[in-house]
């Protein structure tokens, strides 16, 4: 005689019960059986009111509709996550802009980006050490609203240029204009965190996809 492990049987039965309890079709079937039983056993002198039957049917339809909606939303979320992963893979090897104060370097030239929230009559970019010491300034004059870029000759700097950062000061007359610094970096890998697509960048940062300002 072959005996089934008690733990295994309980687990299977428990899983089947959970599925049956959450299955909209099973719920509707149970409701109809209960309704038929109620009609068969009702008091002939005090039959079930039509309004009560309508209310009960409306309730089961509401529950069934919610279950179906939940299943549909779950399916949509899974499809969206898959689309995000495919989109993320297509970005590997591409350069993107994220908020940051690092410059990208190519053949002794540093390049950075920033976004102006409004037109400015005077814009300057300061190249600074990690400690905040200014080593050079790039004067850009008047600039329109939107994304702007600058280049800096790093060949005259004797230290490690990749350690440097930049900061942007912009104004329109006496009024300051907000400037958001942007860093260019290449995407080297993709991942996921709490269901959201993440990108691992060449500079070592890992950012959520929604923090990408632009793909270059």
From TrEMBL:
Keywords linked to the UniProt accession: Bacterial flagellum biogenesis, Cell projection, Cilium, Flagellum
InterPro entries: FlgD, FlgD/Vpr_Ig-like, FLgD_Tudor
Example GO BP: bacterial-type flagellum organization
Annotated FlgD/Vpr Ig-like domain residues: 106-172
Residue ranges of every copy of the FlgD Tudor-like domain listed in the record: 83-210
One Pfam family, short name: FlgD_ig
Primary role: Required for flagellar hook formation. May act as a scaffolding protein.
Family: Belongs to the FlgD family.
Protein name from the UniProt record: Basal-body rod modification protein FlgD
Species annotation: Melaminivora alkalimesophila
Lineage of the species this protein comes from: Bacteria, Pseudomonadati, Pseudomonadota, Betaproteobacteria, Burkholderiales
